[in-house]
Design the sequence.
């Protein structure tokens, strides 16, 4: 199937009321697990990587792998660049042919976030690509110096103006999720999500999807979330499979890890309601 863009996939998710899964990868096993899950579930999917993950994989090796795997899939697959803080990495992804990029200005002030996002929107749109931005801050991500910040919830009042002025095509919202493992049970602010949804028409994105309950996912998708980002649950599943039998050969460990990631991804696609769509 031809390569899809995230805009196309999220437009369909919006129309048919499901959530599309976004999965980060750094190697062949991860990417193959996602594509296999998407094919077997007949589910659209978005795959990609993030600036912070490039320490695990060289971009020039990884980008063709992502794009080629997406184009070979039997279902719509888009390639997206997740959390990126620099113009340089954004431009690399646009040049490589990614259909969308995320500029993460959530560590900046509101005005700085709008200013930088608007500049990147111009470049992305000129290349026919879409831009995801974050307003508020979903905590838990290692930002540079190993700082793990907390959450700053998205202000529904600011959300409309932010999207208008930045030119963002997709908006990541902060409603109580965090990246990585939860120390306590997450409590999602669904009223805030509803208030944002009432003001913002572009597709909304939920980061920090790992560790949420099935009901959390269903409530968020019913509340207007169209893209759910998952990473930690996938790498935890892989590590668990490897630890089960460390005496295996490296190549066999890879295979076990891939199978565990495949199963974890399948579970998510079914919960998101994106299965059996193609
Ligand atoms: P988790 O690692 O918590 O699933 O978050 C993934 C994410 O939001 C990537 O942008």
Sequence:
């Amino acid at each position: 199937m031809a390569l899809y863009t995230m805009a196309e996939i999220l437009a369909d998710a919006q129309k048919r009321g499901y959530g599309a899964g976004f999965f980060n990868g750094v190697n062949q096993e991860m990417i193959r697990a996602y594509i296999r899950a998407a094919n077997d579930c007949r589910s659209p999917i978005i795959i990609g990587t993030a600036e912070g993950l490039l320490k695990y994989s060289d971009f020039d090796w990884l980008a063709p792998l992502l794009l080629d795997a997406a184009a070979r899939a039997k279902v719509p697959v888009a390639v997206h660049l997740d959390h990126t803080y620099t113009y340089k990495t954004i431009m690399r992804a646009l040049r490589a042919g990614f259909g969308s990029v995320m500029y993460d200005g959530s560590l900046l002030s509101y005005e700085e976030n709008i200013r930088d996002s608007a500049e990147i929107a111009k470049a992305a749109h000129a290349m026919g690509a879409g831009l995801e931005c974050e307003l508020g801050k979903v905590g838990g991500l290692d930002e540079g110096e190993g700082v793990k910040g907390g959450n700053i919830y998205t202000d529904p009042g600011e959300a409309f103006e932010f999207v208008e002025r930045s030119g963002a095509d997709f908006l990541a919202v902060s409603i109580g999720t965090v990246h990585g493992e939860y120390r306590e049970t997450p409590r999602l602010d669904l009223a805030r999500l509803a208030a944002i949804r009432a003001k913002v028409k572009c597709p909304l994105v939920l980061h920090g999807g790992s560790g949420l309950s099935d009901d959390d996912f269903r409530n968020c998708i019913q509340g207007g979330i169209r893209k759910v980002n998952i990473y930690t649950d996938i790498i935890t599943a892989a590590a668990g499979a490897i630890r089960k039998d460390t005496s295996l050969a490296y190549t066999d460990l890879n295979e076990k890890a891939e199978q565990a990631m495949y199963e974890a991804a399948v579970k998510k696609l079914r919960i998101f309601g994106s299965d059996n769509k193609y």
